[in-house]
Amino acid sequence: MDVAHDGLDAAAKLDVNAYDVVVLDRDLPGIHGDTLCQMITGRESRVMVLMLTAAGSPGDRVSGLTLGADDYLAKPFHFPELVLRIRALARRRPAVRSRTLSAAGIDLDPVRRTAGREGRRLDLSVKEFAVLEALLEASPAFLSAEDLLEQVWDEHADPFTNTVTVTVSRLRRKLGDTPVIATTPGVGYRIVDPAVPPG
């Protein structure tokens, strides 16, 4: 269990630690509890929020739950009730869902290790999958060959090797006839959507 004494400290802890349940004082200094609640509930990794506050009117409760809090407990409270509510929220916490990366008709699930294009399953090698994942993560930005070597291979990879070129070439063939990986000499590779005109 971690304790934060103001909103700034809480935000810093949330950036580096994974929590199942956050007990949030609505009147935190630094970053107000309302703002922090919206920051927490807007994250991809879902954290259950119990808002704890002296503002216990029905209107306060409604506004707190509207901000995304999963439960609301007014002060003063009975400590065993707080513990029971935390346990109940932990049980209700939704299972983590895999985040599918999608662009240019490609769908890639990093957790299930599956990839497809326009509904067609792609049979990719480990390196081809990793290159495609890196490009989708970076999209629409470019990744240089050096970036891909660093992310997909390791620090011992020869920077003068043509392994990136070869892997991208094989990946292009497996993705099909309509090109979705563009190459700009001296810059690198990126995913492009053939349905979107350049400009």
TrEMBL record:
Q: Which residues carry this modification: 4-aspartylphosphate?
A: D25
All copies of domain Response regulatory, residue ranges:
1-90
Sorted keywords for this record are:
DNA-binding, Phosphoprotein
Read off the PANTHER family from this record.
REGULATOR OF RPOS, TRANSCRIPTIONAL REGULATORY PROTEIN CUTR
Species classification: Bacteria, Bacillati, Actinomycetota, Actinomycetes, Kitasatosporales
Q: Which GO terms describe its molecular function?
A: DNA binding
Q: Which residues form the OmpR/PhoB-type domain?
A: 98-193
What is the recorded name of this protein? DNA-binding response regulator
Cite the Pfam families for this sequence: Response_reg, Trans_reg_C
**Cited PROSITE patterns:** OMPR_PHOB, RESPONSE_REGULATORY
Q: Which organism is it from?
A: Streptomyces asoensis
DNA-binding region (UniProt annotation): 98-193
Top-level division of the source organism's lineage: Bacteria
